[in-house]
Amino acid sequence: MRSAFDGLRLPVLKSIYHGDQVWARLCLQGRRSGAFVLFKDGALDQVVPLTGREIDFEQIHVLSLRDHNVIRHEAVRDDVTTPDQLGGLPAEARSRDT
Q1: Residue 89: which of 57, 42, 51, 63 has the closest Cα?
Q2: Contact 49, 83 (CB under 8 A)
Q3: Is the pTM of this model over 0.70?
Q4: How many whole angstroms separate alpha carbon 22 and alpha carbon 14?
Q5: What is the pLDDT of residues 46-68, one digit of tens each?
Q6: How does DSSP assign 54-73, residue by residue?
Q7: How would DSSP label each residue in 14-33?
């Protein structure tokens, strides 16, 4: 991600510590400046064309801790917003009903 986006920022909007988990809501922000690819089923699916556009979208991360170490990481990201903001998602895919 750092090689694909200039000025990559991940400001934390809110975090909650409960038991052995940390929940963090954050934004992913930056300007597209390098190679960015999307994978599907472990294989290269799409190379998003370089546009120089900005991205700004939210994510939620759940970190499981043991002895002050992260032992598991789960994330909920909006994987449609990213290529859409970058201009790399075909119009027919953006207009599909879900």
Answers
A1: 51
A2: no
A3: no
A4: 10
A5: 777 778 888 898 999 999 999 99
A6: EEEEEEEEEEEEETTEEEEE
A7: EEEEETTEEEEEEEEEEEE-
